Amino acid sequence: MAHQKSILVTGGAGFLGSHLCDRLIAQGHEVICLDNFFTGNKRNIEHLIGNPRFEFIRHDVTFPLYLEVEEIYNLACPASPVNYQHDPVQTTKTSVHGAINMLGLAKRLRCRIFQASTSEVYGDPSVHPQTEGYWGNVNPIGPRSCYDEGKRCAETLFFDYHRQHNIEIKVARIFNTYGPRMHPNDGRVVSNFVVQALKGDPITIYGEGKQTRSFCYVDDLIEGFVRLMNSPSDVTGPINLGNPGEFTIKELAELAIEMTGSKSKLTYVALPQDDPQQRQPDISLAKKTLGWEPNIPLREGLARTIRYFDKLLSEKD
Ligand code: NAD
Ligand code: UDP
Ligand code: UDP
Question: Is the predicted pLDDT of residue 101 greater than 80, yes or no?
Fold first, then answer.
């Protein structure tokens, strides 16, 4: 087995963070999971409590943190538009002050640090599919800006700490990812459609549903995280991680209805401001540098996600 490390995961009680904690624990590492429970949930990590290699800290990354670890994965930040727009100032603080604190920690410890960046740095893209060389089309003052610009500034900080202080950085640009442990009410499209279909509620399509997204199943993404973190020192990213399979939102709605056998009807509501029209990762760089590509097609990932929400909803009844 590889060297056992002590690893900090910020945002570790969230959707992606909890799956990452599982993977690192399964690999034999010691995990310190940090979260302020803004959008995360104790339920996501309850099965790890009591494991002697797992420790939880309730903390907000916008405040300094002093501890000793060998690697840092920085995931803390609400990811759903509904959640990140709920308190936009806190969202920017989480990305920017959070990045400064975690980079300061990495600088003191001389350790590697991974940043969960996002396809949102490309904004409403005019280049399709998106390559890492594209600088993006982002509104700096709109309702999504707190997230998009916060993440862009975090990338700037990562690259300046790398150039100025020689910190080893790993920046992943994550495209829409879904799977078990998404919060049922967090407002993202896959959780919304699956929960609505299972309940027989109307499926809420924003706009005409012609906008596209490319959906990656969580297990594939976490494999990409770990490969990127363990890549040679000169691999800094930014590197796209996502599934290139592109679907319209209407297609996703129809698939959710079909796969749940639901009687839900489609309902059309207003398209939110600055909603990107299309999004698809070019993952050539990840394939070449990390030997990584996703393996789980949308139908299979959705089937697993439907089983998770079906169980969750039946427990609530
Ligand atoms: P999530 O909302 O489930 O998880 C985020 C976690 O961060 C939550 O547990 C939340 O409580 C915690 N958090 C928020 N603010 C914090 C703070 N100030 N201090 C400490 N903890 C804080 O979302 P997710 O989908 O798991 O996203 C994880 C990361 O991946 C985020 O940085 C997000 O921007 C990024 N990302 C996710 C996707 C996706 O499709 N899931 C896409 C692009 C980027
Ligand atoms: N920091 C932290 N833990 C550490 C070291 C630093 O939280 O172990 C924070 C601290 O708040 C600091 C920030 O990271 O302000 C940036 O650290 P850096 O060393 O870059 O800058 P400075 O200490 O000079 O402000
Ligand atoms: N969307 C939708 N109905 C919903 C939730 C989202 O039509 O109930 C659309 C949304 O307008 C966007 C896409 O689905 O075009 C993806 O939205 P999500 O919030 O999951 O992530 P985004 O990629 O926009 O950050």
Answer: yes
